[in-house]
């Protein structure tokens, strides 16, 4: 653990959280840069909308700024921030009615230097995975994303989702089974 001296980017999360809790905006900026991308990925996959995800992350960061003085480090800062993000994503969803995606509504960025067929297949696979994930019940989708994309442990996921490790195992098992069924054509 760091002694609290040195450049803010080099400090560990607990020291940054303590500094930010005392009003250090530079420390909070480091926290936001360090954890913002994973917060956004989670919110985006839960809400299925860029704008809603940005709103949820902004709300979560604002809540973190307001409550970092109360953060005691019982959980990892990342887990605490992801839990805030998940709560704020639920709040955003409650405020909005979901808008269904139209078929083929997956923009495919062009890869000018690559094989066009490979790019098309890769984009279609990503679109199929997005569709399959969107079809999962939210707890399964969140557990799967936290495990497979963010590589969190079962214990960290249980903490973020306010559940037990065994429930996380069950959610992941069902999510993997459903995804395998829905993506069978891609095997």
Residues in helices, as a percent range: 55-70%
Q: Class of the largest domain in CATH? A: Mainly Alpha
Q: Separation of termini?
A: 45 Å
Q: What is the assigned CATH homologous superfamily of the largest domain?
A: RNA polymerase sigma factor, region 2, helix turn helix motif
Number of helices: 8
Strand content: under 5%
Q: Strand pairing plus helix content: what structural class?
A: mainly alpha
Q: Any idea what the radius of gyration is?
A: 19 Å
> What overall form do the CA principal axes indicate?
elongated
Give the H and E element order: HHHHHHHH
Q: Provide the CATH topology of the largest domain.
A: Rna Polymerase Sigma Factor, Chain: A
Mean pLDDT metric: 84
**How many beta strands in the DSSP annotation?**
0
Please give the CATH architecture of the largest domain.
Orthogonal Bundle
- Unreliable stretches (pLDDT < 50, length at least 5) are 106-112
The domain count comes to 2
Note the main sheet: none
Please provide a brief summary of the model.
The protein is mainly alpha-helical and 187 residues long.
Explain what you see:
This protein has 8 helices and no strands. Residues 106-112 have low confidence and may be disordered. Helix 2 runs antiparallel to helix 3 (50-67). The longest helix has 23 residues, at 25-47. With 187 residues, it is an all-alpha fold. The chain has 2 domains: 1-97, Rna Polymerase Sigma Factor, Chain: A (Orthogonal Bundle); 115-187, Arc Repressor Mutant, subunit A (Orthogonal Bundle). It holds the Pfam family Sigma70_r2. Residues 32-97 form the RNA polymerase sigma-70 region domain. Residues 95-114 are annotated as: Disordered.
């Amino acid at each position: 653990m760091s002694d609290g001296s040195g450049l803010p980017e080099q400090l560990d999360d607990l020291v940054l959280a303590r500094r930010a809790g005392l009003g250090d905006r530079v420390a909070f900026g480091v926290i936001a840069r360090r954890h913002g991308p994973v917060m956004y990925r989670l919110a985006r996959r839960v809400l299925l909308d860029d704008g809603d995800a940005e709103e949820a992350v902004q709300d979560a960061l604002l809540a973190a700024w307001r409550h970092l003085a109360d953060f005691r480090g019982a959980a990892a800062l990342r887990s605490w921030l992801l839990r805030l993000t998940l709560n704020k994503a639920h709040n955003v969803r409650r405020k909005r009615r979901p808008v269904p995606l139209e078929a083929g509504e997956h923009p495919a960025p062009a890869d000018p230097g690559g094989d066009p067929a490979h790019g098309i297949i890769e984009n279609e696979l990503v679109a199929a995975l997005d569709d399959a994930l969107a079809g999962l019940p939210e707890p399964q989708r969140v557990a799967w994303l936290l495990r497979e994309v963010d590589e969190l442990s079962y214990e960290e996921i249980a903490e973020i989702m306010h559940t037990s490790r065994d429930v996380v195992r069950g959610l992941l098992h069902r999510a993997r089974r459903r995804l395998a069924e829905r993506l069978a054509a891609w095997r």
